[in-house]
Specification:
- The chain is mostly helical and 145 residues long.
- It has two domains: 68 residues, no CATH class; 63 residues.
- Helix content is 57%, strand content 3%.
- The protein is built from six helices and two strands; from the N terminus they run H-E-E-H-H-H-H-H.
- Strands 1-2 form a two-stranded antiparallel sheet.
Amino acid sequence: MEYGPVPAEQVRKWIGEGRADVQTRARGEESGDWKPLSDFPEFAGALAGRQAVAPVAPPRIGAADAERLAAAMISRDYAVDIGDCFSRSWNLVKDNFWLLVGATALVFVVRAGLGFFPVLGIPTNVILGFALQGGLCLLFLKRLR
């Protein structure tokens, strides 16, 4: 899961809570490379004496907590930077060109091929199309993250 950008104080708090450790991967604002927190000198003091911990499943939340969490998320201020969106999408395609083009072409060919069957082609194309399109979106999201 990806969080951020967050200030260094928040990362130190996560280290103190045990949510982050020496193996937790992060990237600095000036760098696009993901590195373990142990590679960041600014967290050396917070990480001193800490070992890697096994991942723990997040606590389950009840309906009341879910409503409160949803209200808090909706109330947050969020700004969309169109230039950043285009920049990230270009980097995504540039870094994974053949994989993304190949997967998109495969989905296109399968959906186009199903259109040639007169009776079963259209309903199958609709049903299978949702699964194929969902898989393609999942591929793009995983590559982005």
